[in-house]
Request: fold
Amino acid sequence: MRPLIVIGNWKMNGNLASNADWIKTVARGMESGMPADRQYVVCPPHPYLAQCAQLIKEHSLAFLSLGAQDASAQSSGAYTGEASASMLKELGCRYVILGHSERRQLHHEVDEVVAAKALQVLDNGMTPVICVGETADERNSGRAEEVVCGQITKQVAVLQDRLVDCLIAYEPVWAIGTGKVASAQVAQDMHRHIRLQLAEFDEDVASHVGILYGGSVKPDNAVELFAMPDIDGGLVGGVSLNPNDFLAICQA
Ligand code: 13P
Reply:
């Protein structure tokens, strides 16, 4: 049985004061217990990882794990501005988002780089959350499945059976930050497609890998999305900045 996982991706938002308020509110909300078969993760910007790790510890927030939004494909050296997987691990991260469409579009990150980053993250004992997804043009021209399968194929080629220790996040680019959520059926169909593609490689990997949906997830659409058989949780952007909305999605 795959656990349900909710990941909040703060993107480039937050500050010392608002982060402290967020963790305090989530700690209060989780105080009375949370469903045991679920996992919850928050991914603040790199400069705030140490602060959030400390706050999670102070509030004894056993239910909440820390994640990062990116990691370097290199282990150390002259890579100005980068953070290695071992540094993120040292700060207490358990998950790392990789290949987000914003990084693919704005930083020209390609699948081979995403796979190299995933190897670094795995080698440091953390879980890569590998993002895939098609643009509006690709969907409108009937190429959504082809594009996503192409992205998955490149990960399979490099990661092979280590994929079993990864999460995949299907984030259709047209649904990110637009308020246009994929219908639960559209998302389920793509998740099914990804799982069938993984099964062609290895049945065991396919049945164990968690596939999360991301793109305009809100408390009022999370229930329907999470009820789908191949949707194993959500990668939540904008709405996760509000701790009460994040809690509502965690409980959906
Ligand atoms: P939104 O939830 O703001 O649409 O963002 C989704 C996302 O990109 C999460 O990684």
